[in-house]
Amino acid sequence: MMRMKVMLALYLMILPLALAQLKLGFYRSTCPPAESIVQAVVRKRFDTDKSITAALLRMHFHDCFVRGCDASILIDSTGQNQSEKVAGPNLTVRGYELIDQAKNALESVCPSKVSCADVITLATRDSVFLSGGPFYDVPTGRRDGRISNPDEVNLPGPSLPVSQAFQTFSDKGMTMDDMVILLGAHTVGVAHCSFFSDRISGKGDPTMDLALVAKLKGVCGAPNDPAAFLDQGTCFAVDNEFFRQIRSKRGLMKIDQELANHRLSRGFVSRFAANATLFRTRFAEAMVKMGNIQVLVGNAGEIRKNCRVFNPK
């Protein structure tokens, strides 16, 4: 009898978690047009600014790798509390106004139904597809967090060795395969010269193609910390060109180039460089997996009315 009571208690503890997971079509009954509304906002922005894909990919990553995918990165600082936005790695994150536009459109149709965390995830998916990447189904049902602390922002930097960077991913339940394919998001976007200047100054870095070094010296000779494309081939397309570039010693940032050289990651780089279909499949899988990191579901967190501020208590 006692054993049955213990088992029942465990079942009752687990049941709410089992019922409150992310799922496809989460808003089908509460806000049927949710995904199409987000998609329309992203498409309008993409038509005039194809760099928005890189911005949203970065925002999504920076959000999920702090407190999990809870939109804590969207909170504005106040006089009393500083938010994640003021942390060093987030000072150049952009695209917040697109999330605001999508959220405002959703609130006008389905008030307090769609979380800001889901808006980030959906918008990123849609921008990837518009850039020629895979379209992947996104489970939804995330809730928004009520904490945003700059001291918790500890993201892998561009100069970290592969092994140290992987520790950050491993802590979030990601594999080396996941890390390599997610860093393949550098197939779009730019890096400012300050992030790789040490690789092109003085004797430079022997792991970088000499022609690229010469090109970057020309770019970085300008004032105000100019930027260069991370992918020297198809800079606005989500494809496997980035992996072909780093295999040819044409990675800008140290971490990117080390992926092609390190014994733990170079095999994955080779496979993604050689197989566009494999890249698309694994990129979609890893994006969905990343979007599931430490999500708030059920009654946890909240559904913010304004993505930049917590709801009044």
Automatic annotation (TrEMBL):
In this protein, which residues make up the domain named Plant heme peroxidase family profile?
21-311
User: InterPro entries, from UniProt?
Assistant: Haem_peroxidase, Haem_peroxidase_sf, Peroxidase_pln, Peroxidases_AS, Peroxidases_heam-ligand_BS, Secretory_peroxidase
**Key words, A-Z:** Calcium, Disulfide bond, Heme, Hydrogen peroxide, Iron, Metal-binding, Oxidoreductase, Peroxidase, Secreted, Signal
| UniProt xrefs under Pfam families | peroxidase
Assign the protein's first listed, main location to one coarse class. secreted
Gene3D superfamilies the UniProt entry points to: 1.10.520.10, Peroxidase, domain 2
From the UniProt record, list the reaction(s) this protein catalyses: 2 a phenolic donor + H2O2 = 2 a phenolic radical donor + 2 H2O
The keyword Chaperone belongs to this UniProt entry's keyword annotation:
no
**Signal sequence span per UniProt?**
1-20
What Enzyme Commission number(s) appear in the record? 1.11.1.7
Which prosthetic group or cofactor does it need? heme b; Ca(2+)
What's the stated role of this polypeptide?
Removal of H(2)O(2), oxidation of toxic reductants, biosynthesis and degradation of lignin, suberization, auxin catabolism, response to environmental stresses such as wounding, pathogen attack and oxidative stress. These functions might be dependent on each isozyme/isoform in each plant tissue.
| Protein family (similarity comment) | Belongs to the peroxidase family. Classical plant (class III) peroxidase subfamily. Belongs to the peroxidase family. Ascorbate peroxidase subfamily.
- Its name, as the record gives it, is Peroxidase
